[in-house]
Amino acid sequence: MPDVPILEIRDLRTYFHTEHGTAKAVDGVSFSLSRGRTLAVVGESGCGKTVTSLSILKLIPMPPGEIVSGQILLEGRDLVPLSPKEMQPVRGGQAAMIFQEPATSLNPVFTIGEQIGEAIRIHRKLPKSQERSEVIRLLTEVRMSEPERRIDQYPHELSGGMKQRAMIAMALSCNPKLIIADEPTTALDVTIQARILELLRQMREKHGTAVLLITHDLGVVAETADDVVVMYAGRVVEQGDVRSIFARPLHPYTVGLFKSLPRVDRSEERLQEIPGNVPSPTKFPNGCRFRTRCPWAVAKCAEDPPLVEIEPGHKSACWFAADLAAGKDVNFVHHATPGLAAQGSSAGGVV
Amino acid sequence: MISDIATANNDAGSKVAASGPEPLLVVRNLQKFFPVRRGIFARVRQWVKAVDDVSFTLRRGETLGLVGESGCGKTTVGRTVLRLTPATGGEVVFNEENILALPRNALHALRPKMQIIFQDPYGSLNPRMTVGSAIAEPFRIHGLAEAGAAKRKPSGHELRERVGKLLEQVGMPPDAQYRYPHEFSGGQRQRIGIARALALKPSFIVCDEPTSALDVSVRAQVINLLQDLQRSHGLSYLMISHDLGAVRHISKQVAVMYLGRIVEQAPTAELYDKPRHPYTRVLLSAIPLPDPTKRRNRVTAADDEIPSPINVPTGCAFHPRCPLYALLGKPERCRAELPELRPVELGSEHVVRCHYHEDIDKLS
C-alpha cells in the first residue's frame, strides 16, 4: 500500500449562490486516491461529480460558486487557500485535466503542435529547439498516426479520437502526478472509446500517474477503475473497490443503477427503473437525499445516514446497508404507466 | 421483419419474411447522396453517399434497431424514410404506397401515421410554447384524427382534454400542459416529445437516439414506456441508436450500418451472440461491460479512423480496417468486389455482407 495519497479530499463543500437559493452541488465529499490507481466518480447529471473535479483545480467560477469548506490535499498540500497565481504551476504541472469535448477544449486557431508546445513552455524549462521534437515524442506516445504531419494541423483537421489523443498528449506533457479525466470518452464512438481507455490505462501503468475518472458509464467504470465513489445529489452514497461494488452494491441507489441498465451481453424481459427524477440542487430533501425515490424509504431516512464501513473497505450511506450486505434484494417494481391501462382499450389494436 | 433480401434475390429469404405479422414498411434500395460543392458557384464535384442501397422490412408491432457509429448514415435513413429529406433513389413502401412517389397532398394525408421522436428533448420543443400547445399542434394541422369523424377545427375544451389524456399515457400529470418545457427535466421532456408523436395515433415511429441524452435511471423509464406504448397501441418502431444495450433490449431485429450500407442484419439475440460480420464483432467487443470480473478479448480494427464517406473504399468498404482481411492475408476479392448482403445459410433471416464470413471464427 502506498503511503501518502496523491489526492485526498476531506469534507469538500462547493455551493452555488443563485437567485433560486443556494445549490449545494457538492456537500461533504471525502475520498483519497493513491499513486498509479484509478478512482472513478460515478453518478448521473446533477450529482456533483463534475463540480467535484472542477473544485480540485479551482476552476469553479467564483462567484456564484464558493468552496465553503473542506480540504483538497494534492501530495499533502492543501489547494483551497492558494491564490490564483499559486494555482498556476499546479494546473497542467502537478495535475492535468482532460475534458469531455476535445473539440471545444482545443483552440481552433492554433495548430496541435503550438498548443502542446505552449504547455511545455509554461511548465518546463526546455530549449526552443527541443520543443518540436518533444511534441512529436508525446504525439507518438499517445499513438497519433503520422505525428510529424499532425503536429502542424489544426483541430478541425483531426477526427474526434485524434483530438482526444492530442488532449491526452497535452495532459501528459508535464508528467503530472494526477490526471483528472471528466467523461473523456462520452463524445466518442465506442470503438474509439475502447482505444482511448486503453491508452489511459497504459499511461497510468507506465508513469504511475493517478487517474481521477469522472463518468456516468458503468461499463467504463468496470473496465478501468480500481476504486469507485458513487455520488447522488451532492453526496457520496457508496464507496469501495470496484469488484465489491459491482459484486454487491450496498446502497439502494447503486442497486437501482445496475438494475436499470440494458445489457449487450444478455437479454432481459423488462428493465427495472428508478422512479422519478434527480431532485433539483436547490431542493434536496433533508436526510437521505435518495429517499424520495427509494423503495425502502421509511421515517428514519429523514435523518442523515452517515457514510460508514459495512464491509472491509466498502462504505455506504444507508440506514439499511447491513440488510443489503446480508443479501436482501431491493426491488424497483415497475409501475406500468398509469394512463396506459385506461387508454389502452380504446386506442389499442393496430390502426 | 427480415431485411428485404430482394437485393440478394433470395427466394428462401422472402419465404421467411412471409411468416409473422404483415409488413408495415418495406424499404428497397434506398439511396441518399449529398452533393459536395467547393466555392459558392462551383459545380458539384463529388457526392457523399450517406445511404447507399439500403433495404429492410419492418413488420407491424415490431421494432427494427438500426445501429452504427457516427457518420454511418443511420439518421439519414430515418429522415429519408419519412421523406423529411428527399431520397436520391429507391422505394419506401408504407401501407402499400410508395411514399417517395406520392404527391404532396397524399403525403400530407399520410403524415399522421408516421412520426418521429428526436434525441434532444431540449432542442425539439419550442421554449416559447406551453407543453399543451406543443402537443396540440398536430391537431390544429390534421384535426382530431377521430376514426370516421370529419376533419374539423377542434374546440379549446376538446384539445385540453385530449392533451391531458396523452400526457397521462406517457406518465405525466394532465396539468403539465399549462407549463413550459424549461420547467421539466430531460426525461420528462422526452415523455412530452413522445406524447406529441402519439397525438395523431400513428402506426409507425422513427425513434432517433431517443435515450442518448438521458441519465441511466431515466433511460430505463423511457425504454419501458416505449415498450408499453408499443404493446398497447400496436406501434412499429425504427429504433436508430448507437446505444447497443438499449437496442438489444427493445428490438426484434437489428441491422448494422457502416459507411452508408447495411453490413449485417439478424434477429436480435443472434446478431449479438453470433455476429458474422467483422465490423459487428469489432463494434460489439468494443463496448465495456459493467462487470469487472470479465476481461474481454477485444477484436480491434486495423485502423481507428473511419474513411470519409466521400471516398468510400473500393470493394468492401470496411476492408482497410478489417481484422479478418488482414488475418486472411489481404485477399484481392475484398478490395475488388462489393460483397452482397446474403443469408448466412440458405433460408436464414441472418444476412451478412462479407465474402469471408464463414471464416469469422478465426478472429478470436
Structure description:
The complex is a heterodimer of chains A (351) and B (364). Chain A has 13 helices and twelve strands. Chain A has 351 residues and is an alpha/beta fold. Chain A has a domain at 108-174. In chain A, strand 1 (7-18) and strand 2 (21-33) form a beta hairpin. In chain A, helix 5 (128-141) crosses helix 7. The longest helix of chain A has 18 residues, at 190-207. Mean pLDDT of chain A is 87; it is low at 341-351. By secondary structure, chain B is α/β, with parallel strands linked by helices. Chain B has twelve helices and twelve strands. Chain B has helices spanning 11-18, 74-81, 104-110, 131-142, 156-169, 186-198, 216-233, 244-250, 268-273, 278-286, 323-327, 332-336, and strands at residues 23-37, 44-59, 63-67, 89-94, 97-98, 114-117, 204-208, 236-240, 253-258, 261-267, 342-343, 351-352. In chain B, strands 6-7-8-3-9-10-12-11 form an eight-stranded mixed sheet, sandwiched between helices. A four-stranded antiparallel sheet of chain B has the order 2-1-4-5. In chain B, a hairpin with a 7-residue loop joins strand 11 (342-343) and strand 12 (351-352). In chain B, helix 5 (156-169) packs across helix 6 (186-198) and helix 6 runs parallel beside helix 7. Chain B is globular. Chain B starts with 10 loop residues before the first helix and ends in a 12-residue tail after the last strand. Residues 1-18 of chain B have low confidence and may be disordered. At the A-B interface, helix 8, helix 9, helix 10, helix 11 and helix 13 of A face helix 5, helix 6, helix 7, helix 8 and helix 9 of B.
